[in-house]
Amino acid sequence: MDFRHLTYFLAIVDHGGFNRAAAALYVSQPSLSQAIRVLERDAGSSLFHRIGRRAVLTEAGAALVPLAREALRALELARAGVGAVRELRGGRLDIAAMASPAVEPLGTMVRRFTERHPAVTLSLRVALTREDVVEMVRTGRCELGLLTTSSPLPDSDVVRHPAGSQRLVLVAPKAGPFKAGRAVRREQLAGQRLIVGQRGTGIRAYVDDLKARGVDVHIAVETEHRIAFLPLVLGGVGLAVVTESWADLSTRAGALVLDPTRFDVVVASNLFGDILSDLAAAVAGGIGIAPSANLNPEGEYPSMFEPVHGSAPDIAGQGVANPIGAIWSGAMMLDHLGHPRAAADITDAIARVLATTLVRTRDLGGSASTAEFTAAVLREF
């Protein structure tokens, strides 16, 4: 049966005849009569007795009325449901995700989506490999997929949208073989026990590449359950190479996260090192502000501390140099020698002068001399 024909049928019932129903529906009376004849043919029975201008329901017609109303109501609900999904006012969204991107960026994506579309229910499904994610989207089991990969995806019946990139970090117990604050080279992993994912994951591919390059690592545990990595590391079973999405969680759980990019170290020749340090100082507020240190961490040789600008021979003896770089270098030296409170007292005094007074040297837009600015710092100290 055609839903349009059911609408016409109920209009005749509600308006008490063909003429009134045709007027209400803005159709011609012959067209309405033809639609009812088709409906009667589909139903296999007459639905109305035609008595003059009146249309009286037959027994079959009376039986059809509640069923027709129910059918049209169901159609309205279906249309409303489809509209709600299309406009993101309701419905359900199925997402397939591998374990690492399920931490981030999926966590942030879900938070932002639910804030904007609170009536939409999200269903997150676990996929072990990138091929699993692609297959779940391709076959319609999920509308979206999120995966990590270090190589291009093969051609498939899915549309790819880059969502960013993630680095690999090493997660180790704090009492493990590596110290915090120092980068770990690949060859240093030789002889170490690693916890890895199953083949087909980017992390496993990285470990396999290590072995192919001759780094003799031992796979202690191979697991499909990425959530087991952190407990196994903390339990001393081995180390894990994971994506940076796990870094914050691992740190808060008490593991040591070794991420070379967190050290902010630029290796350069002396010439380019000087240029970069001067540029960085200028970006921070002025070349006269920045301290510097040439450190010997082991203490085998002396460490040297001086302002980034060095001796500044072009303004030597004029009393116009900004002393912050030199004073701050002294604070860095105290901190290096094991006196952090004394160092903090000095840097706090500098901060108070800049925050609460108008004393500024010429390079900062003021007129104070080197001695005057130094005196202001001493007063705050």
Overview of the structural elements:
- The protein is of the alpha/beta class and 381 residues long.
- Helices cover 44% and strands 14% of the residues.
- It has 14 helices and twelve strands.
- It has a five-stranded mixed sheet. A three-stranded parallel sheet has the order 4-3-5, sandwiched between helices.
- A hairpin with a 2-residue loop joins strand 1 (48-51) and strand 2 (54-57).
- The termini are far apart.
What would you call the shape? Answer: elongated
Given as residue ranges, the uncertain stretches (5+ residues, pLDDT < 50) are: none
Helix content: 40-55%
Radius of gyration of CA atoms, rounded to a whole number: 37 Å
Beta-strand residue fraction: 5-15%
State the total count of DSSP E strands: 12
Short description:
This protein has 381 residues and is α/β, with parallel strands linked by helices. It is built from 14 helices and 12 strands.
What tags apply to this protein structure?
381 residues; alpha/beta; five-stranded mixed β-sheet; three-stranded parallel β-sheet; 14 helices; 12 strands
Map the helices and strands.
Layout: H1 3-15, H2 18-25, H3 29-43, E1 48-51, E2 54-57, H4 59-86, E3 92-97, H5 99-103, H6 106-116, E4 121-126, H7 130-138, E5 144-146, E6 168-173, E7 193-196, H8 202-212, E8 218-222, H9 229-234, E9 239-243, H10 247-252, E10 255-258, H11 270-284, E11 291-294, E12 304-307, H12 324-336, H13 340-356, H14 370-380
Helix pairs in contact: 1-2, 1-3, 1-4, 12-13, 13-14
